[in-house]
Amino acid sequence: MTEPGCYSPSFKKPSDVLRMRRKRARSDTFGGKASSPVVLADGVRPFSPGPLLNAPGRAGVKRRNPFASIENTYNSPKKRVLSYSGSGIGATEGKTAAAAGLEGKIKDERLNTGALLREELLQQQQQQHHYEKSVSISGEDSLFEEDLFEPESSDPVLKSPEGRPVSDVDPCEPCLEFPADWSLKTRLLFTSPQSFSWADQPKAQEEAQGLTAHCRAAYANLPAQIQDPRGCAELRCGFQQCLQYWQHPSFSWLPLFPRIGAERKFAGKMTPWAQDTGLEQSLMSDWSVSLTSLYSLLKSRLCPYFYLCSYQFTVLFRAAGLNGSKNISALMTPTTRGLREAMKTEGIEFTLPLLEDKKKSKDSSEVSESSRQADGEDPLRSCDDVKSDHSEDEDVGDDEIDDDGGFSWLKEMGVQDKIKKPDAISIKLRKEHREVRLDHRPESVVLVEGSNTFTLLNFLINCKSLVAGAGSQAGLPPTLLAPTAFRGATLHALKARTVNVKTQVRAGYQDVCSLEVTGPIMPHTLHALTQLLKPAQKGEFSVGLYTHEPTAVLNVPIGQTSELETRDGVVQDLFRCGLQQSTVEQLAVPTTLGKSALRQLHMKGHSYSWKS
User: Fold this and answer.
1) CA pair distance 560, 226, nearest whole angstrom
2) CA neighbor of 314 nearest in space, from 551, 48, 604
3) SS (H, E, C) 211-266
4) CA-CA distances (angstroms) from residue 511 to 198, 383, 458, 542?
């Protein structure tokens, strides 16, 4: 090493020190001083994919790769086998034995992998064979069907494109229909490998025919398969027909849906009725006429349902027979204690269906527990069960209090005079607190049935708190939405837009076509659009549903009408309501979604799967 004359011979630069340390570490590794018991292969450097520096035929100097690791270079089984097999005559007996052991291990792994693949393919073939046999012998006796649908060892689950399970339905049984969703949607996003160009830029004649067909409730019968959707006039007219809906009131500069939590949308807009009392009274008078007209159509089975959307709550009126109910029904959500007390004062009989369901489940659990104790089982429960029951009682708040405040047990003990009881005011506040805890929650949904719906209608017309007295929505009557025409209504159309994008799939890109529909989307619109897309997209599409969250609880079941009664009676009674027969059949069946709503809907092979 050559050093300048101005430096001491024993002095080394920091770079030289680091170089010497690296050189010493390499020499220790190749000299056999390393503590690792890894057997070195000929021509392979640790932590480097290249050969040794002193290997024969090596030209130049190769630097060490700082990003290399044992897993992807030296310690790979395939590379170790190649290195041992390439060593040839110069390999030692220990290296040969190690290479043989590695080869045997890799062969075993390949055999196990092949066996697993064969088992998986065999299971898939068996499932397909079971499905074909079940379709061909659907009329056979039930004993043979039980043998045929015996559960397998690994149960397949339908999954969405994101990899999450989307339905609890057995994939061996295709679902030709999805459950009715009574919540209001603000946006639908359809995606499909097939193009949506047929839904873009309708001709003037097609738009006019769609409007006429909607007003006359005339629906065209589309074929099961459409080869050229863009050239099918019936399909394009039917799409325009599905986008129509009726609304009151209507102002072109003011969006009237949604109303709950939409103060920002109304801020800064021109609202002349807020300063003019006469104009506000005129709006309320027209609104009352429109609401009465809608109820008359509903009672005559000429309108299947309609929504009343105020700034505080939403009311869904349904005709008799829909969702399994034999009478006219109305669901109101969310409610407050003051609103429920006002309804009681007006003589409106109502129920809280979610609280009643929790009561029934609680009573049934108590009965089952008592039966277990009678059978001699262990009556003790875990602390988690006790805590869950306690939390459920606190959430529901439906336990009753005795007239004397729940202190009747003091009389039995004879100490009622020694303990100071709370006064009547405290007891009343405690009861009110339990009722107030339900406010603005899904459990506060109110169900009104039969003739009480007419009393509810008069209550809504005369209720002063129905219209906001202050704020950006002050003086504006609630929004009425219906699938059919009514007095004072305005015909509106949902906004549709098609977009074609490319998404990255593994090593390449795939074309994905999308169709976006925005606006107040009602249940019949979703079903009608899926019926159109089934033949147009060759039975393969997906849709993401964006729900107006305050209306998700409207899917609570209220009836248990059988399927036979639904098809025979309800469809005949509602054949003039303005909806397709298949849509009426879907809406007549009691929904199974509970207080949740559909989030994703998929169709593949003309069968549905969904996620709520």
Assistant:
1) 38
2) 551
3) HHHHHHCCCCCCCCCCCCHHHCHHHHHHHHHHCEEEEECCECCECCCCCCCCHHHH
4) 17, 54, 54, 15
Predicted pLDDT at 155: 38
Q: Give 132-147 pLDDT, tens digit per residue.
A: 544 444 444 433 333 3
Task: Give the 3-state secondary structure of residue 454.
Answer: helix
Peptide bond into 77 cis (omega under 30): no
Least confident range of 222-231, 283-292, 530-539: 222-231
Distance of CA 236 to the CA centre of its chain: 29
Give the rounded distance of the alpha carbon of 315 from its chain centre: 23
Residue 340: other Cβ atoms inside 10 A? 19
User: Where are the chain's structural domains?
Assistant: 16-101, 167-243+494-556+592-612, 244-264+274-350+444-492, 353-366+403-437
Judged on CB neighbours under 10 Å (0-12, 13-18, 19+), 529 is: buried
Identity of the residue numbered 285: S
The DSSP annotation for 179-195 comes to ----S-EEEEEEEESS-
Residues sharing a CB contact under 8 Å with residue 136, sequence separation 6 or more, in sequence order: none
**Which tokens belong to 308?**
């009343």
Q: Give the rounded percent of residues in the chain with a pLDDT score beyond 90.
A: 44
Q: Please check whether residue 371 is in contact with residue 364, taking contact to mean a CB–CB distance below 8 angstroms.
A: no
* Confidence band for 74, pLDDT divided at 50, 70 and 90: very low
Whether 201 has a pLDDT exceeding 50, the answer reads yes
What residues are paired with 513 via a beta bridge?
Answer: 192, 500
pTM of this structure = 0.66
> Could you give the CA distance from residue 103 to residue 441 in angstroms, rounded to a whole number?
65
Phi, psi of 329 (to 5 degrees): -130, 155
Q: Check residue 175 and give its pLDDT.
A: 87
With a cut of 90, say whether residue 504 has pLDDT above it: no
326 contacts: CB under 8 Å, gap ≥ 6: 320, 559, 561
- Residue-wise burial string across 21-50, b where 16 or more C-beta atoms lie within 10 A, e elsewhere: eeeeeeeeeeeeeeeeeeebbbebbbebeb
**pLDDT at site 180:** 94
Burial 274-294 (b: 16+ CB within 10 A, else e): beeeeebeebbeebbebbebb
If you average pLDDT over residues 509-533, what whole number do you get?
94
State how far the Cα of 478 lies from the Cα of 551, in Å rounded to an integer: 15
pLDDT at 373: 55
Kindly report the backbone phi and psi dihedral angles of residue 447, in degrees, each rounded to the nearest multiple of 5, phi listed first. -115, 125
- At how many degrees (to 10) do helices 337-345 and 452-462 cross? 110
Are 231 and 244 in contact by the 8 Å Cβ rule? The answer is: no
- The whole-angstrom separation of Cα 554 and Cα 295 is 19
Tokens of 113: 């992998």
Whole-number Å distance between alpha carbons of 602 and 142 = 30
Contact of 206 with 240, CB cutoff 8 Å: yes
> Do 200 and 206 touch, CB atoms closer than 8 A?
no
Q: What is the per-residue pLDDT across 141-164, written as a single tens digit (0 to 9) for each?
A: 433 333 333 434 333 333 334 444
